[in-house]
Each structure stands twice: as structure tokens, then as C-alpha cells.
Amino acid sequence: MRRIALLCLVSLAILFPSWTTAKDAEPKLTLVARSRVKGDGDKKRDAVQLQTLEWNPKETAIVVCDMWDKHWCPPSTERVGEMAPRMNEVIKAARKQGVFIIHCPSDTLEFYKDTPQRKLAQQAPVVATKVPLERWIRIIPDKEGALPIDDSDGGCDCDPQPKSHRAWSRQIATIEIAEGDAITDSAEAFYLMKQRGIKNVIVMGVHTNMCVLGRPFSIRQMVTQGQNVVLMRDMTDTMYNPAKAPFVSHFTGNDYIVEHIEANWCPTITSTAFLGGTPFRFAQDKRPRIAMIIGEDEYRTEKSLPAFAKQHLGQEFQVTYIFDNPQDKHDFPAMSELANADVALLSVRRRLLTPLQLKVFQDFVAAGKPVVGIRTATHAFSNRDNVVPEGKAAWPQIDVDVFGCDYTNHTVNAAGETNRQFIRPVTEAAQHPILKGIGDKEVAMGSTLYNCLPLSPNTKVLIMGRWGDKKPHEPVAWTFTRADGGRSFYVSLGGVEDFEQEVFQKLLKNGLLWAAAKAP
């Protein structure tokens, strides 16, 4: 009988496999999380990494941080009001999937004192913590250093500054508080999580550099308690005044804080994990989005391009970095980020991507979107012997198709040595916006000259270069109207010494502005 029963169970398992894999069949949240790995000086490059998290919704909470009805800084109140409808949709979608919602509008609990959601939080039993949960932790210097923005003035860009720093009375009404949610602003949030077996936390709300990092229910303290934490980076805002260092736009200041969190505290996700579509963006955030695709071993652009962006692009652009994988230089894990970009900046040398990753780039080009290439971009996705290993893809004609040239090599002299170059703007192109502020004098540059002739008829040469009086000159910078109708700008400069020269800094910034259809 025992054998018959066993055979019956096996038969049922074959007919109904879900009976035996019930645990595996439980619904999961699939979150594409972005983080940053700091380079170790010159030995290792910085990296932006994407990883897929699969969380059990029943073990996950959303913390809504300080989404007040009114803020003492009027622009902050406006941004909260603009973001709140999207946030409410995220919360509703997460709630349907079984995620526990904890509303944390600090210093307004008197408004909610008789609600079941407030009483639910008060009933959570106190539990032991690894370290005491503080009312506020401003910064932990040993772990994160200093913040990348100066918010010492409170972060409001109003003129004149508001006299009172207190304005809120409740959470903004746009965000619905449903049956089964909780309301708190203290360590109760962690007690609730432990009571319910919650180990995953999604933080959203304001302000990224203040409450979102410092409150007892937020990033610093939840990470310290051992919770798995992510920030929803498009559902947050920073208190930052562009009149303070690093003197970038308000929205770039928020990006810098998000990057700080990704490098020091936890990964980030976007609202698309629950709603699909594209990430939320404030209406006043008009910055074109640049995706810098970086992967080469000669010129250290994984260092020079981010430094250039921080110094020169913070007012006009939003910048995303797509680095090659330090463990596999032919892999660009974050290539999918290109889909949301307006402009691609390419600094890649002889990388053979996966077919899917190359298709992302080719689709971007085919859509007619602008491409800016520096130095090795002309041979970004090709190798010298044209042998493509299985599982990889190449684009040997990228120089012709995307930049309108025929790259062959560096210029060399009779002794076979490469030569430094001298560049001068072309007189006929003096009024082109990319040459604004460049001048008309010849300038010595650090990089060697490239052989890129012949150029396509659809190119317009802006700068010529030479390395010897008796040798043919070569084009150094030009624009190109592609067959897909899009436009490209290419400059064969891009070495470490080039980035130190003002003429190259102006040229690259102007080229990006031109590509994004913004007048330099």
C-alpha cells in the first residue's frame, strides 16, 4: 500500500508540477537595481553595475518618506505635488502585489492619531536593534565621506528665503492611505518590519540628501540594521540650491546625491519596476540626457570623461555612464540605459559586444538620434583580424556608417614612430557653433594624429591637424549627416593631455550642445 501511495504521489506531481514547486511559484518582484563600484585609484576603474533583484513582496515594504502637504520652500512643495500622482500609482501597484506600505510623514502624527493605520504602527512590539535607531543621522563620514553638494543654506533657491522652516501638517492627500497600511515617523517602522518578517525596503520620498538618508526608517539606518534597501531614484527630490557648490542645476544636484547613495549605501531602481513605461521626470527638468559609453584601455576616459562631465556639463545635461565590465571588457552590462538617452557619447576601443548589446546601440543610431564620438570611437566595435567569436557581434563599418570616415591608423613617421599633432580650425567653418570660443590659432595637442580620409560627402570639416610640415594634413573634427538622418560629431582627440586643455574642453562641450540641438 505504501508503494502504491508513493506511486500515486509521483504521478500527481508529474500531472500537476505546481504542487511540488509551490514555493518557487510564489510571485516575486523583479527589480533592476543600479549601483556603483568605486575604483581603487589608477588600478581599477569606477563602474556602474546593474543587477536583477527578485524579492518576495510579502517580505518587502515601501517607505514613503516625508511627502508632506506643504514645505517651507515653495519650489519643493511644487515638486512634491508634481511627483505625488506617479508615486501614488506605484504604491497602489505595489500594494496589489502584497507589498506593505509604511507612510512616514515626520512630525505630523497628531493628524493621524485616531486612524487604524497609526494604531497599527503603535502596536508593533519593540525589538532589539544592532545600533540604536536615532531620530536623525546627518552623515557617517567614515563610510561615505562628504555629500557631493553644499546644502548648508537649507537647499532652497527662493529669493527671498522663507522666514519660517515649518509648514507641513500631514502627508499630501494625493497619496492614498489604504486599509492595512501603517503610519509612523520613528523606529516603529523597523519594529513593524521585524514583526512581519520584512527584510526588503524600497525608499521613496523627500528629501534625498536629508530625510531620505537620515531618518530612522530610511536609508542609512535601515542599511545599518541589515535590511536590503533600494532607493526609487525617480521618486525622490533633493534640497539643493544651484547657487551653492558644485553650481549645477537643481536636478543635477539630485543626480549627484543619487550617485552618492549608489556608491556608498544601496542600489537604486525606478518606478518602471511597477508601472512600466519610462522613469518619472520633473517638467522643469529640460536637460538633454547623455549616455557616455566608455570602454578602452589606452586613454583612461573612464576617469577623464566623468571628471569633465562634473566640471562642465552639470548645468545643461543629465549624464549616465555605461562602462564595460571590469571582469569582461567586451561586456557592457548597463547598455540598456542607452534607450532613455537623447545623445550618445562613444569612447570605446575594439570591443565585441553581445548581439543584444550591440543591437541596443544600433537601434539608437537607426532611430536618428545624435552620436558624439571621441578618439577610438571610429573602431569601437571591431577588431583587427575581423574574427568574431561565437556569442559576440561586431560593427566594422562604424567609422563609415556613424562618423562618415575611413579610419586606418595613427600617422607614423619614417622611423615608424607615432607623432604628436598640431590643430587649427578651418577658416570656412569659423562661424560653426561647435567652434564657438575656440579661436583661430594653431594649438599643440597631446594625442597623435589619426588617418581618417576619405570623408563622406555628408561631412563638414571643422578642424584640421598636422604632424609634419611636409606630410598631408588630416581632419581632426567634423560633423556628419548619417544615412538614417541623424547627425554625428567626431573628434579624434581624447587623450589624457587633451582633456587638460581648454580648447578640447570647449570643443567637446560645444559638440554635445550641437548634437542635442542646443546652441552653444
Structural notes for this entry:
This protein is of the alpha/beta class and 520 residues long. It has two domains: 53-275, Isochorismatase-like (Rossmann fold); 289-515, Class I glutamine amidotransferase (GATase) domain (Rossmann fold, 3-Layer(aba) Sandwich), CATH 3.40.50. 26% of the residues lie in helices and 21% in strands. It has helices spanning 2-15, 74-96, 116-122, 141-144, 188-196, 211-214, 219-224, 250-264, 272-275, 301-312, 355-366, 398-403, 496-499, 502-515, and strands spanning 29-37, 47-55, 60-65, 100-104, 182-183, 200-206, 228-237, 268-269, 289-295, 318-323, 343-348, 371-374, 409-410, 420-425, 443-448, 450-451, 459-466, 474-481, 487-491. Helix 8 links the parallel strand 7 (228-237) and strand 8. The longest helix has 23 residues, at 74-96. The radius of gyration is 27 Å and the shape is elongated. 43% of the residues are buried. Residues 1-23 have low confidence and may be disordered.
